[in-house]
Structures are given as structure tokens and as C-alpha cells.
Amino acid sequence: MIPHIACIGDSCVDHYEALGQKFPGGNPVNFAVYLRRVGAEASFIGAVGSDEDGLLVRDALAGKGVDVSHVQVLEGPTPTTTVTMEQGNRVFTSYEPGVMEDYRLRPRDLDFIARHDLAVTALWGRCEGDLAAIRARGVPVAFDCADLPEDPAALAALPNVDIAFFSDDGSSLEALMDKARGVAAMGPGTVVVMRGARGSMVYDGRTFYLQGAVDCPVVDTLGAGDSYIAGFLHAALLGKPIPERMRAGSENAAVTIGYVGAW
Asked: Which of 144, 164, 223, 248 has the fewest CB atoms within 10 Å of its CB?
């Protein structure tokens, strides 16, 4: 079985000012590429602008074998994130949403998503209101809350989510367990906490699992969390137990942080 995953929501171009370079990005865009890297089929359902950056994103995704048949090209600029580097860690200094302010899923997009084994989106995907409809079609949903599981978009999404992810590399283990329980109480059957260099933690409603990070050189952490999510979800759809899903996520993240840019 080759899992087929719908990656829904925002795209952007990451602009590294110091390098004078641009890279395609955005959580669902990254999910799609990293899923292809581990052997899954992936579609990106989202929007880009009518500018050169939009063409860059579409061409780059198609070059990675991602289905871009349901990418909306909207009049205006593609979202842009400005990135600086501080000791190997990426720091976002500004974000211009561009055409994402006008993006909405269309009925034909929902029909297309229904043909997939799983749908994954994230905090800025502007589709939290569509997750109930996606689940009603029999498609399980994964959602990345970033480091804001208390954000209104996350709170709206979580009752209709099967696997929830959030990032927190600073809180104590006890505090994270309480936080994971709180997220699980809103609906998700599985809650995954990505802890950066500290590894990850998973709560399945009964048991907590811990996994250390894979030891590797760190060049750029951009995309590390998205890589983890892709590896975890791919292993989940293959029926792997939770510890193996966590290992798959960590190994996929270790590849990404070894080079500059998300992919």
C-alpha cells in the first residue's frame, strides 16, 4: 500500500535575506514534499499568487512529484516569509499573507480530498471550518497547531482532528503531559508534541511515549517539524506502532536540518 495524503492550506516563499535566496515553503507545501521523500503519494491543495513566486512554488512541487491539480492561482502576490539565521536556528522576521487572505476550499477541492487516505493541514491553512466536512467523507484529519494549540484556529479545528501536533521545546515534561491531555480532551485520539532537540512525546489517550532526537549536524532547522509530521503520518498509515512512527518522524527531520532551506 502506498498512502495518498492531501496536504491542504497555505504556501509561501521563504526569503533568506542574508543569502539573497528564496525557497518554496509553507507547512502543507513542506508536508507534501517530505511525504514524497518517504515514499507516499501527496497532493497540495492550496493557493499561490499570480506572480513569479507562485510559479516557483508550483514548478518546484511538480518537480518533486506532488499533485498540483488543485492549486488555485489567485490574482496577487504569493505569501512571503522573511527568514534570518541565528546559530543554525531559523528566525521568522516578517510574514506577508498575500493571496492567502482570500483562499477558501471549493466544493471540487473537497471532492478531490475525499479520494485520499488522510488530510493534513496546519494553523494558517484557513480550512479549520472545513475539517468536519472532510471527516464526514471518511477521511481522517491531522492538524499542526505549531506552538499555539490555544489559538482560535486550533481550537476550532481540534474537535474534528484525529492526530494533533504541537511544538514546545521549553516546558517541563510534566507540563507537556498536562498540555497534551488538554489537547486530547478536545477530540484528537493521538497528540504529538515536537520538542526540538529534546525529541518528541506522544499521548494516545492512555499512554505517553517518549523519543529522543536523532543525533545529526544542524545546518538549518527550517522544516524540521514538518518533516517529523510527514514521517510520523506515513508510518501511521502503514500501520506502524507509535514508537516506530516517532522514529520515522525523527529520522525524516534529521535529513532536513542538514541543509539550508526547507527542501
From this structure: 248
